[in-house]
Write a structure and sequence with these properties.
By secondary structure, the protein is of the alpha/beta class. It is built from six helices and five strands. It is globular and about 45 Å long.
Length: about 140
């Protein structure tokens, strides 16, 4: 499996990469420090998993999800946010991401399980956030 880590903080990229490179199922870990580099890597490699920081500079992370999906529809995207934000999570999922978590809540010991879940085509969301998003979807269907 190939994983692309997109984050503007070198320490975050290095930490996630260190966790992933020790795993046998991870064949390749590639890094990008901005969305332009990410798009080049995705076009070239079509990674299985894209670990995407939603806030890089003044760029629009939600729009970037769409760009990356166009370049590699099969890639599964998990988005990272600085703090849990229900609006951002909903927007990310609706834009095509399959996962969302905050940097504050991520446990390094859970990163591999998250990657494996994404690789199986399942969604990765914190349980409380998942409940709120499902409730929100139900409400939106009632008002249609």
């Amino acid at each position: 499996m190939t994983v692309l880590i997109v984050d503007d903080h070198a320490l975050v990229r290095a930490a996630i990469s260190q966790v992933l490179t020790s795993q046998l199922e991870i064949e390749r870990v590639v890094m990008a420090q901005n969305y332009t580099e990410a798009e080049k890597q995705v076009a070239q490699l079509a990674p299985d998993i894209i670990w995407l920081d939603l806030h890089i500079g003044r760029s629009d992370g939600i729009a970037e999800i769409g760009h990356l999906r166009k370049l590699s529809a099969a890639s599964r995207i998990i988005t990272l946010d600085d703090a849990e934000d229900e609006e951002q999570a909903f927007a990310a999922i609706m834009a095509g991401a399959q996962g969302y978590c905050s940097k504050q809540d991520i446990d390094p010991d859970e990163i591999i399980a998250m990657i494996q879940t994404l690789y199986r085509g399942e969604f990765v969301l914190p349980p409380g956030l998942l409940t709120r998003l499902i409730q929100r979807l139900r409400l939106s269907l009632i008002h249609i």
